[in-house]
Amino acid sequence: MILKQLSSNITKRPLKQEMLDMVLKGSCRIELTQEDWNRPLSKAIPYFVQDHARKLGGLDSAREIQWDKVTLWSLATQLSGIPTVALPIGDLYQPQATAEWGAPEVNVSALSTCEVRYLADHNDQYCSAKDTIALVENFPPNFLPWSTPVYSDLNFMLLGVAISNMTGKSMSTIYRTSVFDHLHMQSTIDSHPTDSAGIARSIIVGAPEENFLAEPVITTPSGGILSTISDLQKLGMGILNSTLLPSEITRKWMMPVSHTSSLSYSIGAPWEIHRFVHPGSGKVTDMYTKLGDSGFYGGALVVIPEYGAGFAFLNAGTDRNRAMKAFKVLDFITSNILPALERQAVTEAKKNFVGSYEYSGENLNVTIDVAINASTPTNVNSDLVLG
C-alpha cells in the first residue's frame, strides 16, 4: 500500500496538522447511532434547547439559524448552512493590516469573551464552547439547512460539542479510546507536548506560541491535533481495512453525499472527494481526501477505495507560499500515482480474469471469452456464446 511505503523511512516526529475533522467523524461513527445522527442541535446541546424554546414562533430564517433543522449529520456533511467562520478569533489575527486596508475598527464591546481576551493577550487563544456558541449566534446563516454544501470549521466544532454532551466524554477521551488506542497511534495527541522530550522530537517552525503552542481547545474537533506520517498511515490503513467499523458501514461512509458546482469535486462526511480523470481513457477515479491548512502547518490524507490504496502528506514552513507549494506536490503525486495504480489494476485483471470460460450441460453449452480492450486497456470485455 502506498500509505505504508510512504511512511517506512520517515522519522516519527509530531507535526501539527489540520485534517482531523475526519478523525472526529470516524469517532462519531463509533460513538453515535443512526438516531443520534438525525438529532437536531436543538435537542443535543443545552444552549440550543433553551434558544429554540425562546424563539418558537418568532424566528426569522433569513437572519437566524434554525437549530431545530441543523442535525449532527448536516454538520458532518457541510450541509448545515451555518456561517463560515474559521475560528472564534479568526477576524482578529491581523488587526494592524485591517486598519491599513481602511476597514472599520473593531468594536470591542460587541466581541465575545474569548475575543476580548485574545485582544488583550494574543497568546491567549482559549475559547470555551459557550463563548463559541454565543459568537455564532451573532451571525446569520449562509444558507438554509440542507440547501448546498459550504465549508465551515464551526460544523466540526459544534459536532464535537454535541458528541461530548451526548456521550458525557471529553473529545480527548473519545479520540483516544475510539480511534488512537485501537490503531496504535501512539504519536498522535490533541494538545501540544509540555515535556522537554516531547517538544524536542516535534517539528516546530516560526514562533512556537503563534502556531505550535496555540491551544484554542474548541477547535480540536476541526483540526487541533498533532500527528506523524506513520500514525496517519495507520489511520488510512484502518479505514481501508475496516479495522474500526464493520465493512458495510465503511462502504456507506465512503460515498458522496452532495455535489458542488464543479464536476470534479463532491462532498462526503466529511470527505472532500476529488474526481481524477485518467488521461487517454477518460476513466474517473474518486479520491477521498481530508485536507487542512493553518498558519505554518498543513496536511492531507488521501484514501482511494477503488485501489485499496492512499497516501499521507504533512508539511510545515514559514514561506508565505507554503500552502500553494504543498498543493503542487499533491498534484504531482496524484498525476503520477493514480495512472500507475490503474496500470497495475489492468495487469492484475488480465492475470486473474482474461481467458476462456466454458460450461457444458444437458441442454446448454456456454462459452465466455474475456479479454482486455487494447484501445482502452482499462476495460475488460467479455463475449458470451450460447450453444
TrEMBL record:
Beta-lactamase-related domain segment(s): 34-320
Pfam families: Beta-lactamase
InterPro entries given in the database record: Beta-lactam-related, Beta-lactam/transpept-like, Beta-lactamase-like_AB/R
Transmembrane spans: none
Protein name as it appears in the record: Beta-lactamase-related domain-containing protein
Protein's organism: Penicillium angulare
Lineage: Eukaryota, Fungi, Dikarya, Ascomycota, Pezizomycotina
